[in-house]
Amino acid sequence: MTAPKRSKVKTPAKARSKKSAKAKKVREPLSRVFLRSVGIDWDATDWRGLGYGGLTAVLLFAGGAGAIYWNNGTLPRVYNETVEDLFSFTADRGLQVADVLVEGRNRSSIDAILTKLDVERGTPILEFSPHTAKARIEELPWVKSATVERRLPNIVYVQLEERRPLALWQSNARMNVIDQSGEVITGARPAQFSSLPVIVGQDAPQHAHEVLALIESEPELKDRITAAVLVSGRRWNLRLDNGVDIKLPEENPQAAWAYFAEIEREASVLERDVIAVDLRLPDRLIVRTADGVRPGKRRPKNEKAT
Hints:
Layout: E1 5-10, H1 17-23, H2 30-37, H3 47-71, H4 74-92, E2 99-105, H5 110-117, H6 130-137, E3 143-151, E4 155-162, E5 165-171, E6 174-179, E7 198-200, H7 208-216, H8 219-222, E8 225-231, E9 235-240, E10 245-247, H9 253-267, E11 274-278, E12 284-289, E13 292-298
Parallel strand pairs: 2-4, 5-7, 7-8, 10-11
Antiparallel strand pairs: 1-2, 3-4, 5-6, 8-9, 9-10, 11-12, 12-13
Helix pairs in contact: 1-4, 5-6
């Protein structure tokens, strides 16, 4: 498997001269702006002479007036403008995005990642939200999880954990690529993963790890398996490259598969005119040929099958 790519991306420039000009202004504290907006002059008011009762009345009045100004949009506008100017102020002093560093990328498109980040060169880095960017990046089909950080003064860092293809899942005449957890990788093209094992059946993805581990346990036969078919959600048939079906039992399929591999090494059953090999009976192997059914060797009595 190829190592994940590490990408350092130059983000496009973004003009912020207008905001920069605003940042150079000496701004009045927001508290004084608010009090003046509700008719109170900070400098002309003798706060000590008001007493506790007078101060309480002023605060109640300011609170009631603040609620009115909040509802008509005055305070939100003042707040947003102040925050925007603060971001521009910090950007003018070097806290602005210069580069995006992405690690762990193997299959995800860098353009798609940048689109989800929604950040450009020159953006105030304190304005950038890692939490929002993380949620957006994890919407990408190949991304299992993401870590997004600000690395001050000017780097946005992204660490990806991408999904790993496990198998091709065939259901209702449709083929999908599934990952290690059995979930479909949206947008993945099955034709690009033709070397993956094929599993068939409605509930097959949830049990894919089990049957693939079973197949891997017999290296001499694993390369001959073209598909594993889940039957009635209970047991597996293994389809070989010559069209023969190996019917495994519901209970202890590992022992049945190991027994068949041993018989194949001794008698080369698959070189004959065989249609299917049935291992479901508890005490014997049954070989079905074009001419009919031929009982095979008896299986050890300590094996269980259904």
